[in-house]
Design a protein that fits this description.
The chain has one domain: Rossmann fold, CATH 3.40.50.1820. The longest helix has 19 residues. It is globular. It is of the alpha/beta class. The mean pLDDT is 97.
Length: 278
């Protein structure tokens, strides 16, 4: 595993990890709200490493990336972060794979840099809107009721809320060592970062139809307790060409709970990409 530091938008230092086949198609994994690169362990340590160059970034404010007080509202900054990783690591037409909040960052990048340097996109339990009643309708009431605790500066309240978040991502309780790892990297994100991410207002309805020439895969857990499975219909209305994998028996983090099946969906998608690009 290689660790890199890349200067993103506004000079923010971003932590990035890399593994896998340096000659393979790059897959850039973009984690969810309040997570970090460690969420993708079951991809970074999988059979995907034999075929693909796997990269996972810590978003600004998360993991080992810098955590500025006020640098989260501008779509250009998020776009510049992804561009910095693509250019800094010389990623040749990567597949961008975003979980939950991750698709918002992917779309920030595409809004400002287009799709010329992107081979395909993967949305995992993802949302494409934020900050409106329509955006909130894609999220479960249980998740929305927990959101205020994510912003609390009271350690006990914040930790309790984040423990709820971790458990809502999964359909069953993780092993204790997994729970504390997940809770640890959630807690490491300052409350002001979590609040800033949820304070954004984003509507990508204008952008989504422009992606119809970009190969897309939508993966969603049928038991997702955070992002309603019905959101897939919204995505496919804008991206009718997208492949859809509804994964039974799994929730908001299918790449963790059913890693082998998820990895196979990604591998198959990428193999079809290569055929299309010949």
């Amino acid at each position: 595993m290689k660790h890199h530091t890349v200067a993103g938008g506004g000079g923010i230092q971003l932590h990035v990890v890399e593994t896998g086949n340096p000659r393979g198609r790059p897959l850039l994994f973009i984690h969810a709200f309040s997570q970090c690169w460690l969420a993708w362990q079951r991809q970074l340590h999988s059979e995907l490493t034999s075929q693909y160059r796997l990269i996972a970034m810590d978003l600004r404010g998360h993991g080992l990336s810098e955590k500025p007080r006020d640098a989260y509202g501008d779509t250009r900054l998020w776009a510049d972060d992804v561009d910095a990783v693509v250019r800094g690591l010389a990623l040749d037409r990567p597949v961008l794979c975003g979980w939950s909040y991750g698709p918002l960052v992917i779309l920030d990048y595409i809004r400002h840099y287009g799709t010329d340097r992107v081979a395909g996109i993967v949305f995992v339990g993802g949302v494409t809107k934020l900050g409106s009643a329509e955006a909130a309708s894609a999220l479960t009431p249980e998740f929305l009721s927990a959101v205020p605790s994510f912003f609390s500066t009271d350690a006990e309240e914040s930790t309790a809320g984040l423990r709820t978040l971790v458990r809502m991502c999964l359909t069953s309780d993780p092993q204790p060592e997994e729970l504390y790892l997940m809770l640890g990297y959630n807690v490491s994100v300052p409350p002001y970062v979590r609040q800033a991410l949820f304070s954004r207002t984003i509507d990508n309805d204008d952008l989504m139809p422009t992606l119809r020439a970009t190969p897309a895969l939508i993966v969603h857990g049928e038991l997702d307790a955070i992002c309603k499975p019905a959101v897939v219909a919204q995505h496919t209305a804008a991206l009718p060409h997208a492949e859809v994998a509804m994964m039974s028996g799994t929730g908001h983090a299918p790449f963790w709970e059913q890693a082998a099946a998820f990895n196979e969906h990604v591998r198959t998608f990428c193999e079809r990409l290569e055929i299309q690009m010949v």
